[in-house]
Amino acid sequence: MFRHRSIWLVTVFSLVLGPAGRADGPSAKTKEKLYITNALGDDITVVDVATNQVISTIKVGPHPHGIALPASQNVIFITIETDPGELVWLDPVSDKVVRRMNVGPRPNQLAVTPDGKLAFIPVEDGNWEIVDTEAAKIIGRIHTSGRPHNTLCSADGKRMYLAPMAKSAADNPRVVFIVDVASRKVMGKLNFSDAVRPIALSRDEKRFYANIDNLIGVEVADVSEPKLIHRIAANISPDQRSIPSRSHGIGIRPDQKELWTCDVNHHQVYVFDISGDIPRQIATIPMGGEVYWLTFTPDGAICYVSVQGKNRVAAVDTASKKILARIPSGEMPKRLIVVAVPNKTDSH
User: In this predicted model, which residue has the larger pLDDT, 202 or 343?
Assistant: First the structure.
């Protein structure tokens, strides 16, 4: 059976919570923190969203990769990309590891159901492992071709979207599997033109967006059909065309009007207007280094971009498309997520 990623959760949270430290932010009883997995290190960098300052570094184990959380945001799940791999539970209030268990080899970007009871973890042996997070037990597996890599969950928690990337030229699924969570059975597929990398899903579950190998840009599928409907190449300069690159990192701004995506080796982020039927590029943001992933604050005011080539994360103002801060991280920052937690000064 398939497991989902929690990328959609960041978008959902962005709709209901505002970032700390701003007039339209959340209650003073909550504080927002950015968590960054440092893939070539053994730690997570934690950043205060209100100040864009690093507040702590948490040792979790070598090669942390995926990061996800339930709707309650009371626990963060992290995959450790070793063999065997590990699933780690992190308390975002204390920033302490509270539990861990072995999973399959080299797990990538996981997702959890909104109630936090199930984690869907893609592992290198070709399976998505389904973990009962309360019992810390693997309760099922779904096998696919390719190399299980990225996962998303629908906002209502009823469907998982499982995106294996190519394992070899001969084993390249070029497909995203749609899995019914209740039955844990594949209920449909979305076909793409090449190997699927990072993915994003609109809140209404009508449009599915994917970074694709051999495309600097994005492909778009209609979920209800299901079918591929658009292939959008980013606008790049003639000089950049001579430099091989790929897109890796994608996210929908919480207002559902913009899609942001990373161009790894051209060191840029592209912004597309997705309010119409066909995505339209409206901005190009130079990042000053190799980029790999991105996420948004809950109100969508800031986009955080992993500039892994510089071991830092850029905080980008989404209105002006200007970089507000460059935040130091650990070695090779990749996945990121914003979490709202109770302020310690308000807890009893």
Answer: 202
Provide the percentage of residues in the chain whose pLDDT is more than 70.
91
Nearest to 60 by CA among 345, 343, 335, 302: 335
CA distance 224 to 66: 28
Of 145, 161, 273, nearest in space to 208 by CA: 161
CA distance 58 to 42: 8
Closest-CA residue to 206 (of 251, 158, 154, 163):
154
Please give the model's pTM, rounded to 2 decimal places. 0.90
Fold adopted by 7-237+336-346: Methylamine Dehydrogenase; Chain H (2.130.10)
Tell me, rounded to whole angstroms, the distance of Cα 274 from its chain centroid: 19
CA 275 and chain centroid, separation: 22
Q: What is the mean pLDDT of residues 48-56?
A: 98
- β-bridge partners, 279: none
Inter-CA distances, 99 with 106, 147, 339, Å: 18, 27, 19
